[in-house]
Amino acid sequence: MKFLVILLLLTGNFLSQGKEDQEVDLQLRDLLTDKEFRDYRRKPRYRDRVDLFKKVFDRNAHLLLQHVKRNELGKSGDLLLQIQALCQYVEQEAAQAKEPKDLRSKQAKQLEIRLRRLVATIKNLQATIPWEYLDQFEVTAQALEKLRKLLLTHLLGEALAARSFPGQSEPGGSIG
Q1: Quick one: which of 17, 38, 60, 159 has the most CB atoms within 10 Å?
Q2: 39: which residues sit within 8 A by CB, 6+ positions away?
Q3: What single DSSP character describes residue 24?
Q4: Secondary structure of the chain: what % helix, strand, coil (to 5)?
Q5: Which residues have C-beta within 8 Å of that of residue 27, sequence separation ≥ 6?
Q6: DSSP for 110-142, written as a single string
Q7: How far is 120 from 97, CA to CA, in rounded Å?
Q8: CB count, 10 Å around CB of 143?
Q9: How far apart are CA 173 and CA 88, in angstroms?
Q10: 104-130 as b/e, with b when 16 or more CB fall inside 10 Å?
């Protein structure tokens, strides 16, 4: 009996690691509404697109709360995958930004705040969901934290961003 339990735990662990390592492959068209996608294509400036992404993250946070409240965990899992994919698109936009001052814009600061709130929401929701779904929530929170760190690096510079994430900084790199 113990062997069976250990085997099931190990199998579940390997399967969950496979999910974490795979790239989320969703098209931007699938993540945005028709109007949002038209706005995205019409406005190529980084600031405008970051503002759009901020609204999409807000909408997704609201939907996630509704799905968890209604116990629609399958839908919440799909939404978490969409949030992870959206993080990748925001990272691509940041990499393609033409003006360095755009990376320090008001819109980027507001997006960082929204991401911080969304991470807190996801962490709070983890306490209310069955353990089978914890991995999805954790992977999404990590993707959001990674994007937050990128935005903070652009906003504050390397040294200050490292202080904002003390657990992830280089050894000896943060000031005590």
Answers
A1: 60
A2: 48, 52
A3: P
A4: 80, 0, 20
A5: none
A6: HHHHHHHHHHHHHHHHHTTS-GGGHHHHHHHHH
A7: 28
A8: 21
A9: 27
A10: ebebbeebbebbbebbebbeebbeeee
Q: Which two tokens stand for residue 53?
A: 């992404």
* Stated pTM of the model: 0.74
Please state the separation of Cα 54 from the chain's center in Å: 12
Q: How far apart are CA 60 and CA 118, in angstroms?
A: 9
Quick check: 144 and 122 in contact, CB under 8 A?
yes
Round to whole Å and give the CA distance between 148 and 143: 9
Residue indicated by tokens 């978490």: 80
Exposed, middle or buried, 133 (CB in 10 Å: 0-12/13-18/19+)? middle
Identity at 143, one-letter amino acid code: A
The pLDDT tens digits of the residues spanning 25-64 come to 689 999 999 999 999 999 999 999 999 999 999 999 999 9
Cα(68)–Cα(72) distance, integer angstroms? 6
